[in-house]
Structures are given as C-alpha cells and as structure tokens.
Write a structure and sequence with these properties.
Strand content: 25-35%
Number of helices: 10
CATH architecture of the largest domain: 2-Layer Sandwich
Helix content: 25-40%
Family: Belongs to the GHMP kinase family. Homoserine kinase subfamily.
Radius of gyration: 19 Å
CATH topology of the largest domain: Ribosomal Protein S5, domain 2
Largest sheet: 7 strands, mixed
Distance between the termini: 12 Å
Number of domains: 2
Shape: globular
CATH class of the largest domain: Alpha Beta
InterPro entries: GHMP_kinase_C_dom (IPR013750), GHMP_kinase_C_sf (IPR036554), GHMP_kinase_N_dom (IPR006204), GHMP_knse_ATP-bd_CS (IPR006203), Homoserine_kinase (IPR000870), Ribosomal_Su5_D2-typ_SF (IPR020568), Ribsml_uS5_D2-typ_fold_subgr (IPR014721)
Keywords: Amino-acid biosynthesis, ATP-binding, Cytoplasm, Kinase, Nucleotide-binding, Threonine biosynthesis, Transferase
Pathway: Amino-acid biosynthesis; L-threonine biosynthesis; L-threonine from L-aspartate: step 4/5
Order of helices and strands: EEEHEHHHEEEHHHHHEEHEE
Main location: cytoplasm
C-alpha cells in the first residue's frame, strides 16, 4: 500500500439559473489534498483564506472520512493532510461539496474501499442533500441529476463545454442555510409551470450546447434568484454589464453571493479586464469547465 497520495477535487457551480438543486458544473478551481500515512492525525491548511486554528474532530473532511469508514465497517487509519483550496467558503462555489467528495475519496484510498463512481455520487449527494454540486465534483463537466427517495443518483453527464466562465466573487459570505430562508414555501400552479418550463429549456439547451439559449435561460430563473437578489452585492449591475460586454448570460453560482457568466472563450481576457474596472470590489476570475472530476494519484 502506498503511503502518500494527492487528491484533487474540482469546485463547482450549481443551478445555472433555473436548474435548482439539480444542475451542476465542475470548474477548474480546485481543492487539493496531499495525504501521508502517519501514526497520528494532522491537518495543515496551506491557503491564506483557510482557518489556521484546526480541531481535527470538527474538520469537515475528517468527519466525512470517518462517517464513510463507519458506513463500510472500516477503521480509518491516521494520516497527515496538507490542504490548499481555490474555493472561498460560503461564496457559492461548492466548497462544502468538494470537501465532502474529498473526505469520501480519502476513506476510499485509506481503507481500500474500491468505491465505484456511482457509489461516490450516491454517498456525496446523500450527505449534501441534493446532487448538483456533489455530482459535478465527482464527475467534472456538466451534470443534470436527480436523487430518488432511496438516495440513488441518476445523472446525465455532458462533457466538452466549448465556452468559458467568469465568476464574480464579492468579499462577503452567504451561507446556503441563510439563502434558503428567503425562498417561498410554495408557488401557485401557473408560476410553477413557467418556472419548470424555463428549467426544462435550460437543461435541453445545455445538452444541445446551444450557448446563446443557455445564456438566455440562465437569466430566466423563477425558483430562487428573484428572492435572493437583494442578498447579493451588485446583482443587477453585473448582469447588465456582463451582457453589454458579450456574455451569453449570468446567474447566481449556487445560492450566491458569487455570480457566474458564461462567455465565448475568444473574449475571455478582455471581458475580465473590463469587469475588473467596473466591479473593483469583486474578485473576477476566468475559468473553464473541469473535465476530470475527483482525481487521486500516488505521489
């Protein structure tokens, strides 16, 4: 058995507008763990934005790894984890889902579980409560997923997205639990029909890779964005400026407060330069779809 591995997990964006809790996209922004077997547990955070004070038993990756080991009746061996992340916490870029997927993968290698991709999809989505970010971190690319009452995930996986993405990250956190509190408990039937139609058209456009339609329907959400917009800095201004600069469309990334635009790859650098000037209080990052999903290599 090897004694050292590197686990790489892509972050993700969820929903892309009306694909509420079901559409996810793996992004080329990563959580990385270098794992070394040793006699005692140790977790070291290498990125500046990660907390420096760590309680092992409270760390999400440790908790998920331990829970996964218990699920399969295994004893989790101790190790040192050196962790870096390009995913700011509570910004809508799938940081918790990536950590969950990393924790499952950690147990997979330490306990020789030989988990299938379907196992990883099911376990991560069950822990998250929905399959959007989790499936995107497991598979990479675009995922359109559902999870049944038994926690079994069914996913349509779309690769080779020929577009770029730009995320607008404000310097504020917005926890998903808080963002869910502003959502209505129910919709009337006609409203729900229109909202579902827009979600269906987004999903179909994504499968067809019709980027102009994708952008159009990303901006037609009725399930959550109208209610969360007031929680997001410069929500409407970013939508308008991104469209004027050539974006196909813009939507909340997950529950926010990050916004994400889909753009033609040819305009990437000039688009970012323009947006940085207009929105100096946001971190504006150009990225692409990840195509590998969670990846483990021996070091």
């Amino acid at each position: 058995m090897s004694k050292k591995w590197q686990i790489t997990v892509p972050g993700s964006t969820a929903n892309l507008g009306p694909g509420f809790d079901s559409i996810g996209l793996g992004l080329s922004l990563y959580l990385k763990l270098t794992v070394t077997l040793q006699d005692t547990w140790e977790i070291v955070h290498l990125s500046d934005h990660l907390p420096k004070e760590i309680v092992i038993e409270d760390h999400l990756i440790y908790k998920i790894a331990k829970e996964t080991a218990e699920r399969y009746g295994k004893e989790l061996p101790a190790c040192k984890i050196e962790m870096s992340s390009e995913l700011p916490f509570a910004r809508g870029l799938g940081s918790s889902a990536a950590a969950i997927v990393a924790g499952i993968e950690l147990t997979n290698i330490l306990c020789d579980l030989d988990l299938t991709t379907q196992d990883k999809l099911n376990i991560s989505s069950q822990i998250e409560g929905h399959p959007d970010n989790a499936s995107a971190s497991v598979l990479g690319g675009l995922t359109i997923s559902s999870m049944n009452e038994d926690g079994i995930v069914d996913t349509i996986h779309v690769q080779d997205i020929d577009a770029s993405f730009v995320v607008f990250i404000p310097n504020v956190e917005l926890k998903t639990s808080v963002a869910r509190q502003v959502l209505p408990e129910q919709f009337d039937r006609q409203y729900a029909v229109r909202a579902s139609a827009n979600a269906n058209m987004l999903a179909a456009s994504l499968v067809l890779k019709d980027y102009e339609r994708i952008g159009h329907y990303m901006e037609r959400d009725l399930f959550h964005e109208p209610f969360r917009a007031s929680l997001v800095p410069e929500f409407y201004e970013i939508h308008q400026s991104a469209k004027e600069a050539g974006a196909y469309g813009t939507a909340l990334s997950g529950a926010g407060p990050t916004l994400i635009s889909i753009i033609p790859s040819a305009i990437g650098e000039q688009f970012v330069t323009r947006m940085e000037k207009i929105f100096p209080n946001h971190q504006v990052i150009l990225t692409k779809a990840d195509h590998l999903g969670v990846l483990t290599v021996e070091v």
